Fold each of these.
Amino acid sequence: MRTSLLPGPVHTRVEHVWGTVVSIDVRDPGASDHAVDAAWAAVRAELHRVDAIFSTYRPDSVISRLRLGGTQVVADDVADVIDRCLEARRTSGGDFDPWQVSGGFDPSGLVKGWAADRCANILRQHGLRSFSIDAAGDVVCRGRVAGRGWPIGVAHPDDPTSVIAVVDVLDAAIATSGTSQRGDHVIDPRTGAPASGARQATVVGPDGALADAYATALVVSGVSGASWFSGLPGWSALVVDGDTTTCWGRAFDRDLEARES
């Protein structure tokens, strides 16, 4: 995502956390550095709090202790993430299942989008209205840019410097999962082997957590097994399987029409 190339003033902040990079672009007209800094301080605190709870790389995190078989009263945040994982597993027919992974329950395929939504709420609470949050490729957008949704490019699976689509994201989330950039990190929960349903899947919808999870699930299921997704109201997807691109939903209609004309 290259929102810094959009016209008009922008306030950008970047944080290294979760072993990756999280950034915000704020485009509120008249927003001061002081206002953005105050909001960003609260976002940074939330990012590191989420890491302390959900990191599978920190032995002291709540999730790590649960994975080792520890029993404890979990915070509301953990209970909420578990509920969201159950929802994604149910909707996807098991194509997303963080209980069927090596080492025990691992919600990493949902938490980045979930945290991005929480950070969006924090920015709103600080009075900001037009911004994007990029949590290692899971993007949540609020407000408009130049009277339209945020134009977000979907990277080509064979060339991360080019895009296969540009979609306007308006008060929604977009998430991409695939094997081209990070290798075979998506696991088929039924077999324990690397997923082979699709090379890449991008999902656009109203919820960051579910967008994150559904993109992972579509890499597992591929086009042939994704009947569970095609009927979801308010959701769109672009799936790359071999050299074939398949789309559902309205989010990609304008871009496909432009590329086909």
Amino acid sequence: MNDLASSTSVRVSVVQMQMMKDKKENLDHALSLVSKAVNEQGAQLVCLPELFTCMYFCQTKDIKNFEMAETVPGPITFALEELANKLEVTLVTSIFERRIHGVYHNTAVVIDGKKGYLGKYRKMHIPDELGYEEKFYFAPGDLGFKSFNTSIGECGALVCWDQWYPEAARLTVLDGAQILIYPTSIGWHPEEKDTLGPSQIEAWEVVQRGHAISNGCFVVVSNRVGFEEHPTKKTGIEFWGQSFIVAPDGRILNRASSTDTEIITVDLDLSEVEEARTSWPFMRDRRVDAYGDLAQRSTD
């Protein structure tokens, strides 16, 4: 791993991948891309997409898909730990976790170089809509929103649908996060792309830039890419890629394409976090005494 000149500087790489049907092939490909990010681009933190070892199976409800789940820690985390230890790199991604028979989660894991497995976050917000049948597979997370004290800084791990919720970002930052990381699987339904595509992707990007600004933190988003067919219908999802990294003032520091497996890399200066929170003192001016109703579905 390359040593950067500033102690507050962290080189972050986002791996954007197109998934294949074979789990081992996806894992090997991901490990190869992580190695490339570290050895060729000097990455200290590498982020992989949501459920990166498999096709996005949540397009349909199929009980056989539960066979893909594994314990966390388990074989995938062991493989990530081995590589992270060798390369001295911090890794964040999402795995289909089998907690016990009948209880499964979509779980982010944080692997920190020679320290190994630091812990996990279970996805809190679970979507349930056409093509994203996640409530069939995943129980809502029960570990709370959390930041992990890694060797490169405080990293908050959230997963995909969580990225739409300002409460999730804020609570993770309140736990210490300087960097919010979102492993993601999001794309277009072919029948909607022409009419809704531009507005959908703009909304997705804008809301996460808003998290960066309102919380004075970096935001790192790793999406999958490529078209994945629906198992039984003549449709599917075109995952739109465009993984990106945002600064605390909302600037897009780098963005991947909408079509290719690739790595994007950026040097983050973590001193910008304190600078942003001081110059835009949103954290100071919060009215914590007035937010009790946020814990209700409605004030009606």
Amino acid sequence: MSWASDYLDEARAAIVGAGSLQDLEQLRVGYLGRKSPLTLRLREAAQLEIEERAELNRTKIHLEDLVKTARRELERVAIERVYADSAVDVTLPGDPVPRGRLHLLTQIRREIEDIFLGMGYEVFEGDEVVDAWSNFDALTTDAGHPSRSQNDTFYLSEDVLLRTHTSPDQIRLMEARTPPIYAIMPGRVYRRDTPDATHSPTFLQVEALVVDRGITLADLKGTVLHFFRQLFGPAREVRMRTSFFPFTEPSVEFDVTCFICDAQGCPVCKHSGWIEMGGAGWVDPDVFRNVGVDPDEWSGFAFGLGIERIAMLRHGLPDLRLFWENDLRVLEQF
């Protein structure tokens, strides 16, 4: 046995038995480093026989291969250990992940939109900041009407204001579009109201507008009836009562049979069997003239209702402010 052979056997046994990458590195330095016996002997190669020099070089190459092989194996074992320590037991029950949901008012609004889209209507969204022309004048609201007062309306300037209803969208739509028109206008509106259980300075409204040839009040009642049956159930009935609005003539208010007690009488419907829902009417010919629509050729109807009111009635909520207080105890119920 030569010196190189003994050295290789000793180094091989140590390298193969290395328990970690750190131990392997120490062995590499010890057996192959600049101050290792093998390196020092190779520095004297000029004084050695050719066969001995060749054997030393073969020993060095063999040890380098042993170190590489041992390093790959230790790295593989280390990776497997990491995977084993971080493995997920798929049989264990998972932790519940909290999920968000749409606000109740958004749910109601989308449901309303879906009902009208199913009837062939379009959804038109206008601006919340409008001029007095589209909010009042074009809708034939008299200059002395209480709704034009600064006590009732948020004015940004003498002629610019936050819309008090979504009816300005009807004006914009008729100005931009040639009839026939079948559209709803949902959105936020603003009025100077003191917040309480039934009033808010900002709330959601949706209005419908139909302009076509040959439209009658029977079309209005049929549309409202279909809408409420889709919203509150197929057993609902609708009635109309005469009323007054500046931009419709004739004007009506519509009620729906109570969906809580099925028209038998309860506190929600004040034991009448009917729930008041909103206002409607025949579009006043003067409104048509204001937007360049010929009332002799075209006729139509419009109606509007509050989205919060629908949500309150459907779910029995007693206070309008619950929608805006972001109390999760309330919102998580819907």
